[in-house]
Amino acid sequence: MIKFRKLLLAVTTLVFVFSCTTENPNEADPGKSANLKTLGSSAGDLLTDSKFTSMNIEIVYVDGNRPTDESISSFKNFLTKRTYKPDGIDINLRSVASSGKAPFDIEEIAEIERNERTAYNVGDEIAIWIYFADGNNEKDTNEKFVLGSAFRNTSMVIYEKTIKDFANRTGAPSRAIIEASTLNHEFGHLFGLVNLGIEMVSEHEYTDGDGKGAHCTTQGCLMNASIEFGSGVVDLVNGTGVPELDQLCIDDLQFAGGK
């Protein structure tokens, strides 16, 4: 999952703290089981065309919480740049009513997925489900905010209300930049980064004080646990403001069959 540490906006130094969860809510459904596995276990299927030649991404958002067109475009570019899917990557968005369950724990998100997900693997097409929630994570505090969580091999949640609230703060990044950074980072975990389903070509896994890893040691990398942006505005990365993968993470993806 992605977290923002509390900011001193008077100084306007922005710090993104990226993290993920490997929680895998138990769910037994033979017809859907291929999409309900452990986080990172479908990395090769997502990266290569050996089994799946196309990708179908179902984005379900609560009314009033649709992601920006800019972030979706950036997200698709990120996927196209790193995967072999000769038959294309389709991103389909639809709105749903609020569950009324906020703040959420991961089991509640899993329940929403059971009720709302319609896209599952079919033939040579792999399916991803992304939920843009209308509330926050139950673990949020005054100092840390969870922005998103990849919690299964083809599932993730984005806490859109939290993103919008943060983007409205003085000196914060734009909503589109935060959305794209969150989407790309969490999909990096679906790709198996870091050491979460694909092997590391060289050692670059960061582990925090709680023993949680799955992040990159390189400062500025999309998969780093902490990315610091400049005073008042985001230090632009390649003109977009959205962090890029460093070469160590790219090496891992390429070793696993990606681009």
TrEMBL record:
Q: Which InterPro entries match?
A: MetalloPept_cat_dom_sf (IPR024079)
Q: Which domain of life is it from?
A: Bacteria
For this UniProt record, the keywords arranged alphabetically read as follows:
Signal
Any one GO molecular function term:
metallopeptidase activity
**SUPFAM superfamilies listed in its UniProt record:** Metalloproteases ('zincins'), catalytic domain (SSF55486)
Give the signal peptide range.
1-28
Protein name as it appears in the record: Membrane metalloprotease
